[in-house]
Design a protein that fits this description.
The chain is mostly beta strands. It is 0% helix and 63% strand. The chain has strands at residues 2-6, 9-20, 23-32, 35-48, 51-58, 61-69, 75-81, 89-94, 110-111. The chain has an eight-stranded antiparallel β-barrel with strand order 1-2-3-4-5-6-7-8. The two termini are 27 Å apart.
């Protein structure tokens, strides 16, 4: 569970990273008002032993995500933006065994309309 800044507010976010076919990829879901938006994380490039830059994509668009993991890999501080070299907006997370939003969206409303 973590938070990401969207506009002038912070939203709860669940971010998951994994290794798939030798590449680091991931997914995320954030809650904006009462709607949960799903997105993907791809094209991750390791910058140092504890940091990487990736591409995020959801219904709002695509852009860059730069993350710095703590020494045990259980938490990260990051920044996102519309371009890889302009990542200035807050996004963080920490490891949890079964992450869930504090309150599920009414009627399970989700927004996952990804466009290529």
């Amino acid at each position: 569970m973590g938070t990401l800044q969207s506009g002038f507010s912070y939203s709860p976010v669940i971010t998951k990273f994994r290794v798939e076919k030798g590449e680091i990829v991931g997914s995320y879901s954030f809650k904006d008002r009462d709607v949960i938006t799903d997105g993907t994380i791809k094209d991750c490039q390791v910058e140092s032993p504890w940091s990487m830059v990736c591409t995020w994509q959801d219904k709002y668009g695509t852009g860059g995500l730069r993350v710095l993991f703590d020494s045990n890999g259980g938490a990260f501080s990051g920044f996102w933006g519309l371009e890889n070299d302009k990542t200035m907006i807050h996004w963080n997370g920490r490891q949890m065994s079964d992450p869930k939003f504090p309150e599920e969206a009414p009627n399970g409303v989700r927004s996952s309309n990804l466009t290529p």
